[in-house]
Every structure is written in structure tokens, then in C-alpha cells.
Design brief:
The structure is a single chain. The chain is built from 6 helices and 4 strands. By secondary structure, it is α+β, with helices and mostly antiparallel strands. It has 2 domains: 53 residues, no CATH class; 92 residues, 3-Layer(aba) Sandwich (Glutaredoxin). Strands 2-1-3-4 form a 4-stranded mixed beta sheet, sandwiched between helices. Helix 1 packs parallel to helix 2 and helix 1 packs across helix 3. The chain starts with 5 loop residues before the first helix and ends with a helix. The mean pLDDT is 91.
């Protein structure tokens, strides 16, 4: 919603509706929207929900622009220590994202230099491109050494420690 245009948001909303069916669901941006989301993008999502057929006609021949940003991913197979990547909307403003990130930081306090932890917030185009390249579908998520470990579920301390230990051989 933050970096796309109104048509991107209309098309994405319709794609989501089509993927889950049309009964007993709620279309929502999640727990939070970045502060600077253009109002027309929110209007586009609303229109797709309340006037899906008219919106479908508006975007029938529309092709989303792709992010032409090349991001380098780590060579996960050659890491010296486990890499815990936390993908969030923004841990400064989203409660669930804060809990997910703090879970990883709790593990960092336990393991110290034995692990690396990095957060990628969906507040930059580069991080969104990274999320797309990694295959992130839900926020917040934790990936360990490039593999999805926790998606929209904040792990307990023991669950996260076990997942990290499993990568340490």
C-alpha cells in the first residue's frame, strides 16, 4: 500500500479476494498501515471491496509495475553462524512486529555473537524487494538461514531457541 499506486492496490485487493473466496472474510491492511500510505491507495482498496466488478473492469488490462531493485541475499549455505532475519511492517509502530523482533533480540541476548539478527521493515522499497525475493508472504515473520521459521506467530523463547539450535548442527 505504501509504495504501489492506486491500480496496484485495486488489483492486489481483487487478487486476494479471488484467492480466498467471497464469503465470511475481512479485507484489512493488517494490524497497521505505514503513516505515509497515499490516501488514493486506501480508496482503491475500498473500491475493490465494495465495487469489485467495476474495479475489475478498470484494471482488466493493467499490469503491475515490478520493483526494479536488485537486492543481494546472503549465501545462506556459507554462513559462519545462524542468521535470524525478522521481516516486519515496522517494529516501532506495529505491536505484533515489536513482539516478533523482541523475541529475536531475546535470542540474541542468549546466544550473543553466536547468532546474527537483522530486521527488515516494510517501510523501504529495498526491504520490500528483499521480502519478495525471499518469498515472504505474511508479516511479521522470522526466517533462519533463509528458511521460514515463524509466520505471523510469535514464537516462545523455547520454540525460537530450538529452531536456532537445529541450524547450529
Amino acid at each position: 500500500m505504501l509504495f504501489g499506486n492506486q491500480q496496484d492496490n485495486m488489483k492486489t485487493t481483487l487478487d486476494i479476494i479471488d484467492s480466498v473466496g467471497h464469503h465470511n472474510f475481512i479485507v484489512s491492511p493488517g494490524c497497521d498501515m505505514p503513516y505515509d500510505v497515499p490516501p488514493e491507495n486506501t480508496v482503491g482498496c475500498e473500491q475493490a471491496v465494495h465495487q469489485p466488478e467495476q474495479t475489475r473492469a478498470l484494471v482488466a488490462n493493467y499490469t503491475r509495475s515490478s520493483l526494479d531493485i536488485d537486492v543481494d541475499l546472503p549465501d545462506y549455505g556459507s554462513l559462519e553462524r545462524p542468521l535470524v532475519e525478522v521481516f516486519t511492517i515496522d517494529s516501532d509502530t506495529c505491536a505484533a512486529c515489536t513482539y516478533m523482533y523482541q523475541s529475536a533480540m531475546d535470542a540474541k541476548r542468549r546466544y550473543g555473537d553466536g547468532i546474527d539478527v537483522v530486521e527488515y521493515k516494510a517501510t523501504s522499497v529495498e526491504n520490500i524487494a528483499r521480502m519478495q525475493k525471499v518469498g515472504v508472504t505474511q508479516l511479521p515473520s522470522i526466517y533462519i538461514n533463509g528458511e521460514l521459521a515463524f509466520s505471523s506467530i510469535i514464537p516462545s523463547r523455547d520454540e525460537l531457541n530450538r529452531a536456532i539450535d537445529a541450524t547450529r548442527g
